[in-house]
Amino acid sequence: MQQAFHDRHALQCGFCTPGMIMAAVDLLAENPDPTDAEIREGLEGNLCRCTGYQNIVRAVHDAARSPREVGR
Ligand code: FES
């Protein structure tokens, strides 16, 4: 997940990043192939002041397809 956030430039100032990553890992544990809407719903408790939501959603999709995130 951290690599996906890095690769997709899913963080700017980094203030929200720990919470986003923890919520995203939990989301994939429950739902390994989420839709965009399900990702946004799963992360909705975390606010990004830098408004990088689109790249965050892309990063979670990438992580969902990553062998590292599968089979946990
Ligand atoms: S990256 Fe700055 S608050 Fe999300």
UniProtKB/TrEMBL annotation:
Tell me the leader sequence span.
none
Alphabetized, the UniProt keywords read:
2Fe-2S, Iron, Iron-sulfur, Metal-binding, Oxidoreductase
Q: Name one GO molecular function term.
A: oxidoreductase activity
Q: Show the coiled coil region(s).
A: none
The family database entries (Pfam families) matched by this protein are listed as: Fer2_2
Q: Which domain of life is it from?
A: Bacteria
* InterPro entries for the chain: 2Fe-2S-bd (IPR002888), 2Fe-2S-bd_dom_sf (IPR036884), Diverse_Oxidoreductases (IPR051452)
- Domain [2Fe-2S]-binding: residue ranges: 1-61
SUPFAM superfamilies reported for this sequence: CO dehydrogenase ISP C-domain like (SSF47741)
What protein does this entry describe?
Answer: [2Fe-2S]-binding domain-containing protein
